[in-house]
Amino acid sequence: MTRAPVNKIIPLSLVDGPGNRTSIFLQGCNVSCAYCHNPETQAVCNHCGICVSGCPSGALTIVGSRVKWDPEICTLCDQCIKVCPTFASPRVRSMSPEEVFQEIQKNIPFIRGITVSGGECTLYPNFLKELFAIANENGLTCLIDSNGTTDFTRFPELMQLCNGVMLDVKAWDEQVYKKLTEGPTNSIVKKNLQYLADCNKLEELRIVCLPGEVDAEAVISGIAQTIGEKACSVRLKLIKFRRYGVKGRLQNTPSPDDIYMEKLLQLAVGFGFEKAVIV
Length: 279
Ligand code: SF4
Ligand code: SF4
Description:
It is built from eight helices and eleven strands. By secondary structure, the protein is an alpha/beta fold. Strands 5-1-2-6-7-8-9-10-11 form a nine-stranded mixed β-sheet. Strand 7, helix 4 and strand 8 form a beta-alpha-beta unit.
């Protein structure tokens, strides 16, 4: 049976796509962005046990060689996440698409669809395919929130079931991208950008803006040149970097000022992004 590690399910979200949606966050990512604001989703727990003794409510125990989490007594204090040396979380459930849908089902009267995020949810394409098939049958739209490093052209069935992708374009210059993400290359992201625009599955574009770390001006210009006229119809979010939740070398870095963000917005509008916003 297909299963995936689920970090959390937010029953009702207004920030993960159009309308009210249930958001599912899968654990594990294939890049390590320096500005990641939920770094505890990056790695899958290796059951080292370091976090167990610090849990104030006794929600963590070692059973055999594995760390077991008891959601009934966990107070969500985040102490385990603070001490984890590998950017993981012990509060992860291995779930099948059917089990996830059982949790979604009670929200159906209140939601337009579901959005699956991460970590990087496209690391689990078969899980997504099965979950989206069930959601489609129940009249829900399905969105993917992705860093774009999985080649979407390899998964035509999944793309058929998916209504759209919210794509992070983290950097345009390959060296800037590698430094920011510790990832290999952004060539697949650029290929996906073109592919999603061509098949009308580009739901939203996102750029986290931080001068000196992200070449946001080049990203705006590069996207515009890639997707052409479609720039006018795709929502572009210019996300102001915030250090909240960030671990590592950028944890004390201040946010860019409003003047810089406004300059980026004007640049985007000049390139035809009629739906560009600062968030
Ligand atoms: S968040 Fe972690 S440390 Fe806090 S109570 Fe829950 S399991 Fe324990
Ligand atoms: S969450 Fe982190 S610290 Fe806790 S057992 Fe897993 S890897 Fe170790």
